[in-house]
Amino acid sequence: MSCESAYSGQANEFETVKEDLVKHGVFWPEIRNSSNLIQMLFSLSAVWNWGTILEVQMIRSGHFIIAPTPFYRDTLQRRADMLKNSQNSGRDFYREYFGEMVTEFRRKRSGEVLSYEQLRALEEQVIPKIVGPFKASTFTTIRNKSLGDMLNITGIVPSKVIWENSIQKYFNYTPGFPYVFTVINVEFFRAFFDLIAEVGEPKMAYYIGWAIAQPASLLSEAKLIQYYYITDAKAREGQLRFCSGTTHRYIGLPFYAAYMRDQISPDDIQDTSVLVHRLRKSLVQAMENSPAPWNQLSTAPYTPNETAEAESSEFRLFSDAAEEPLNARYAAFPDMGTSVFSNMERATKGRRLTSESTMMERFRIRHDARVYYPSDQGFVFLPIVFELPLYQNGAPYAVKYGALGGEIADALAGELLRAAKVLTKSKGAEKNLSASCLPEEVRERQTTEGALQLTVKALSLQTLYRTFLAVNDAPLRLRLGPRKLLTEEQVFFAVGCYMQCGSPIAETRCNDLLKSFSGFGRAFGCARIAAMFSDRDCDFT
C-alpha cells in the first residue's frame, strides 16, 4: 500500500491529501471564520469514514458511531516527546515540526496563518480540557438513539436542523430516512462542543485541522514522517505501526476479505476448516458430558463487550449450521489498489451496501490482529493466521495444533466463558470458573481479569490437547539438537509456549498454565514432586 511506501519515497500522495482536505472543509494551516465543524465531521465520514479527533463513522447503512479517534492518543504522545526532547537537547523539535508542516500544507493565496506561539497558546486552552475525558478509563455510552434523542441526552448546542442538513447533504439521505446514533464517551463528546463555544469555531476548526494534518501526512510525505518521529529508526517502526493500524481499523474487512479471496488457497481454507470443526466438536462433546448446565446457553441473550451494540439476539453457541460466508457479512468486497486514500473511499462505499456492522469492534479491546470477533457470536480469521509460524499446510499435527490450533481453541473457549458469565449473572462466576481450572497458588498471583484470561487458556489447552491426542494416530519423533529426540506430544507443548513469545505475560501463559494441566507432566515424565507436575485439569467440562 502507498501508506507503507510513503516513507521509502516509492509513493507520494501528498498533493492529493492537501486537495482532499480542502474539499472536506479542512483549511489548516489557515484559520477561517467560515469554518463549519459539523460539515467537516460528516464530509470526512462520508468519503473516508475517518478524520477528526471526534470521528463520525458509519458502521452500516443508517447507523452512525461517534467516538474519539484512537490516533489522537499518539498525536498527544508525539507532541509530549518532541517537547521533552527539546528540553534535553536545546533543539526545539516541536517548533521545527510545526514549521515544516505549515510550509508543506500552505497553499497559494492562503489566508491568515497562526504562528507557533499562537498554536501553543491555543493548545494550552484546548488540550487540558479535552485530554481528561479522552484518556478516561470509564465513560458513558448511549446506543441506537435517534438524532433528536442523542442531542437531548448529550445537551449538544448545534441544532438538530444543522445536523440534519449535513447528513442529508453528505449521505444523500432524504428527510425521514431512518438512522440512529451511538455515542461512545459522551463526556469527550460534550467537552469537544464545549470547547467550540469557549474558543470559537474558527480556532477549534484550526486545532482540529492541525490534528487531522498530522496523520494525513503520515500517509503521504516522507520528510514530514521523519520530523514527526524525530529519528529515522523511530520513523520506520512508528509509520509501519500506524499503517497497519489504519488499514485494520478503517479499511478492515474488505481489505482482509479481498486478500483472503485472492491470496489464500482453497486447500488452506479447507485444512483450517477441518481444524475448527474438530476443536468445536471436541468442546461440544465435553460440554454434553459435563454436569454444568451448558445446554441452557443455546438461548442465552448475549452482548460480547462494552462497545458492541446492545441489541439482544438469540445466541446459539457453536451452532452446527453452515458458517455464514464472510461475503454475506459484507455485501461488496472492493478490490484494493495501491492508493491508501482510494482504498479508504472504496471500503467506505462498500460499508454502505450492507445491513451488517463491519466495525472491527473488539480489536480495540483485545489488540488481537489474528482473529476478528464480530459484534455477535463467532469469530473470523484474519490473513496473518495463514502465515508462518501460525500455519503451514502439511505441518505435523503437533505444530498445527500447537500453533493455529491454539488460536482457534482460545477463541472457542473465550466464547464459551463469556456465555457462561451471561448465564450465571453472578459476580462470583469468574472466581468459580477460575477455581475449577487453576491451582490456588496460581490464582493468588493474578488479578481477577488475569485469572479469567488464564482460565480461558486452561480450557483452551484442555480442549486442544484432547483433540490433538484423538487425531494424532501416527506419532512422530522429532530431533532437537544432536541427540535429544522429542515426542510429538512434547513438540505440541513446546510450540504452544513458543507462540506466547512477545506477550508481556508469556511466562504466565506458558509456565503457570502448564502447572495447572496434567498432560504436560505426563508428556515429559515429570515426577510428582517436580514444579511442573500437576494431576488436575478444568473440571467443568
Automatic annotation (TrEMBL):
Annotated GO CC locations: plasma membrane
GO molecular function: metalloendopeptidase activity
Biological-process GO terms, alphabetical: protein processing
Superkingdom of this protein's organism: Eukaryota
InterPro entries, per the entry: MetalloPept_cat_dom_sf (IPR024079), Peptidase_M13 (IPR000718), Peptidase_M13_dom_2 (IPR042089)
Protein name: Uncharacterized protein
Lineage: Eukaryota, Metazoa, Ecdysozoa, Arthropoda, Chelicerata
